[in-house]
Amino acid sequence: MSRIGKNEVIVPEGVNFSVDGRILSVKGKLGELTEEITDSVTVEFKDNKVSVKPVNKDKESFSQWGLVRTLINNMVIGVESGFSKTLEVNGVGYRAAAEGDILQLQLGYSHDIKVAIPKEISVKCSKPTEIVISGANKQKVGQFAAEIRSLRKPEPYKGKGVRYSDEYVRQKEGKKK
Question: Residue 151 sits in which domain range?
Answer without folding.
Answer: 83-164
